[in-house]
Design goal:
Blueprint: H1 2-28, H2 34-41, H3 43-56, H4 60-74, H5 84-97, H6 101-112, H7 120-134, E1 138-145, E2 150-153, E3 156-160, E4 165-169, E5 172-179, E6 186-192, E7 197-203, H8 227-232, H9 236-282, H10 298-341, E8 350-356, E9 361-367
Helix pairs in contact: 3-4, 4-5, 5-6, 5-7, 6-7, 9-10
Length: about 375
């Protein structure tokens, strides 16, 4: 009986303790934070966690795809825990590790445009990665007037540009085309080297309004065949010095324009090399890095640019020297004629217009000789 009483007391005590302890435990047990709960249900944060695991394991392709999916999902779920600026920067770092320099430069630049949303350490890491990516691509700063013009780069539609638009391109030849209603189409062609920066400002002129009524053709004037007119016509022997002078002027202008274009191109490459050297020194390069046995792969491209710069500078100097020789010879012909014949040479009815572009140079001759 006493044993039964003890068992009953113990059972009642256990029941009372259990009944009082359960509410206390429920109050003291920490609940899941609201932010963590949203992250579990948000596809943006799920993609980011998957990308972080792949990045830490060195699976850069999987990390890139996950960060790209997170960036696309952030447009539909703007209340995600990770800001799209940080996602774009991490995506650019993964693309840099995969040697996708153009995409890396685009996403890292997009991230740094909102750097105020990033921690200071993350800003520095993204800035270093952005400098590395830009070193291997062509940077184009493009502005178009009017702003409602449609812009195409290498046949791909960029859209309408307001202000100055930054575009990253691969090295090589590129064609920029802009068109707008009531305006003439504008086309700009250029060759871009790695690390080079090009600034292009395109202004589309108004299209010319064609007249509906055409003027009647003018009647040709009769050619005079009087003896006085025949006496004034120069003979074949008298016309050849003028022809030689015109040729000398044309060669002088063409070689001078060619030399100027070559030297300008050499200067652009030299500036690109100098800016790249600043970036490489920030990355820890020294003057002996490319001379070592284990030189980076980028050293070959640097040597190629140096050789191209030296070749263009030499050809430019030779062209200018050739222009000077022909110019002196042409000027001497005028002085010689004045000295021997006692009269100034007759003025030829010829107009010489030099024409130069970023790829070629020449002259336009108008008149009769």
């Amino acid at each position: 009986m006493r044993c039964g009483t003890h068992l009953l007391v113990i059972a009642l005590a256990l029941g009372a303790s259990t009944g009082f302890a359960s509410p206390a435990d429920a109050q003291e047990r920490p609940s899941v934070p609201a932010r963590q709960a949203r992250s579990d249900g948000s596809p943006v944060n799920d993609h980011v966690r998957r990308a972080q695991r792949a990045r830490d394991a060195g699976r850069w392709t999987e990390a890139r795809d996950a960060y790209k999916a997170a960036l696309e999902a952030s447009e539909q779920f703007p209340s995600a825990q990770v800001d799209p600026a940080e996602i774009a920067g991490e995506l650019g770092c993964c693309e840099l590790a995969l040697f996708n320099y153009r995409e890396a430069a685009e996403h890292l630049t997009r991230s740094l445009e909102r750097r105020e949303l990033l921690p200071l350490a993350v800003q520095r890491r993204f800035k270093v990665a952005q400098l590395r990516a830009v070193f291997y691509v062509v940077t184009l700063l493009l502005s178009v007037e009017p702003p409602d013009a449609e812009v195409f780069i290498d046949g791909e539609r960029v859209g309408r540009i307001s202000g100055t638009h930054k575009v990253f391109l691969e090295r090589g030849r590129h064609v920029v085309r802009a068109r707008a209603p009531g305006r003439e189409e504008s086309v700009h062609v250029f060759n871009g080297e790695r690390g080079a920066k090009h600034e292009i400002s395109m202004q589309l002129p108004h299209a010319a309004v064609s007249s509906t009524k055409e003027a009647p053709p003018a009647r040709p004037e009769p050619v005079s065949t009087s003896p006085a007119a025949r006496a004034q016509a120069p003979g074949p022997r008298a016309s050849w010095p003028g022809t030689l002078r015109i040729g000398g002027i044309a060669i002088t202008t063409a070689t001078a324009a060619t030399g100027a274009v070559l030297l300008l191109r050499a200067h652009v490459i030299h500036t690109s090399l100098r800016e790249g050297d600043v970036v490489r020194r920030q990355q820890g390069w020294t003057s002996h890095t490319c001379r070592e046995a284990s030189a980076p792969a980028a050293c070959a491209d640097i040597h190629r640019q140096v050789n191209q710069r030296n070749l263009l500078a030499t050809l430019g100097k030779v062209s200018l020297a050739t222009s000077a020789v022909f110019g002196v010879a042409t000027a001497a012909s005028f002085l010689t004629e004045a000295a021997f014949f006692g009269a100034a040479p007759a003025a030829a009815g010829v107009r010489i217009v030099p024409v130069t572009t970023s790829e070629r140079a020449g002259v336009l001759l108008e008149g009769a000789w």
